[in-house]
Amino acid sequence: MMSLSDEVQKFIDKNHLFSKNDKLLCAVSGGMDSMVLTDMLVQLNFQVHVGHVNYRLRGVDSDQDESFVRQYCKNNDLPFYSLIIDDETLNDMQKGNLQAKARKVRYDWLEKIRGEQKLDLIITAHHRDDVIETFFLNAIRGSGLTGLSSLKSSYKNIRRPLINNSRDEILQYSQLNNITYRVDRSNSDNKYDRNFLRNQIIPVLKKRWPFVHNKLARTIQNLRHDSTLLEFYNSKMRDDWLHAEGDQTILKPLDEFMEQEESILLGYHILKEHGFSYDQAIRIFEKKHESGRIFYSDKNIVCIDRNRLILRKSEVLPDVEIIMDQPGNFEVPGGILQISKSDEPIHSDNPNNIYIDSDKVQWPIQLRNWKPGDRIRPLGMNGQSKKVSDILIDNKLSLFEKGKQLIICDSTDEIIWVIGLKISDSVRYEGKSTSFLKLEWVKL
């Protein structure tokens, strides 16, 4: 019969989790699971470093856990790193979901140590029972496939070599190999949802169905396969419907997308990785979509723009207001305005490169954001004015592009250039013009 360590080594090799050349940072609490994993990796001759977080939640017990892990590392000549939670972080953790906040603190710190010490991977002792508990927790919270099949053996810089092994197998290893470990008494406190499942619910299921762990593990594995397949087709769908335009991602034509069966579900799978919920997808992809509607996730924005859906990262658009009393280079967020004198105008098809009559410019001039009510007297309109907002619409600028649009006006606040779009008739050069200004907008 294969030993647990041989079984784990085989699992590591089969799934290419890590090699003997990798420097591993093991997350070690001092409990049975992490002590067994650390001992096993040491015996298998992996390069082991140990990271321990002292949350200070259990007083003397927390300090003793840290001392225990530190001494173990000293006895086994293993590099040891520890984090002692400060008062501010401790107070914040105790507000809201303690376990979720503690998890974030732990992983953020482990990743920090991994980078600082030039280590390769973070190793955790999650096992099959943890996977099943997480399945139940996420099912109760209404998770989809991703949540129900979470805790994979490999995720970003994290590896979980015990993920297919049970708590009973780990206990047996600890007994056979005389592994000493610390017992966290808070694991018996059923006020925590995971403990309640572990101590109250799952034992009842196991009594009724002795092989429930094996069956649930198989179910989760099947869900994981389905999730992988779904992601494959999601990727193909994104390639078919999405394309990048600068710092934006565009889904178009929106009306054709809406004709697809289950368009809302398809749209949700496109947007969920950007933080949008299914309820938002329903509103975004409803049949009567209105141009100009905006939806927000934590870090991204979606805008419906005519027959397009535009996705981009959230950003605070800066107010631009620069007074210029002579030519020069003027840098603002998004670009550089270059103003220089010229002996003659040179024709260019670049709308961001124009020439105007220098004698017609009333200095100082101003570079600023456009605002509602702004008007310009464009070339070719016989002195008639036009709203800047209408010019933006005529040029089919999206809501995001409109927010970034800049104009240049003179000392009387007459707009002389809607940058990249329209020049004012008031500064056009003629055959009798003798001096010129070159205005060039360079996007950054």
Give average pLDDT, whole number.
90
User: Which regions are unreliable across 5 or more consecutive residues at pLDDT < 50?
Assistant: none
Number of domains: 3
The second-level CATH architecture of the largest domain is 3-Layer(aba) Sandwich
> What's the count of strands?
22
CATH topology of the largest domain: Rossmann fold
Question: What is the CATH level 1 assignment of the largest domain?
Answer: Alpha Beta
- How is the largest sheet built, in terms of strand order? 3-2-1-4-6-5
Category from helices, strands and their pairing = alpha+beta
Between the first and last Cα atoms, what is the distance in angstroms? 64 Å
- CA-based shape: elongated
**Strand fraction:** 15-25%
Give the radius of gyration: 31 Å
Main pleated-sheet profile: 6 strands, mixed
Helix count? 15
Short structural summary:
The protein folds into three domains: 4-223, 3-Layer(aba) Sandwich (Rossmann fold); 246-313, no CATH class; 321-443, Phenylalanyl-trna Synthetase, Chain B, domain 3 (Phenylalanyl-tRNA Synthetase, Chain B, domain 3), CATH 3.50.40.
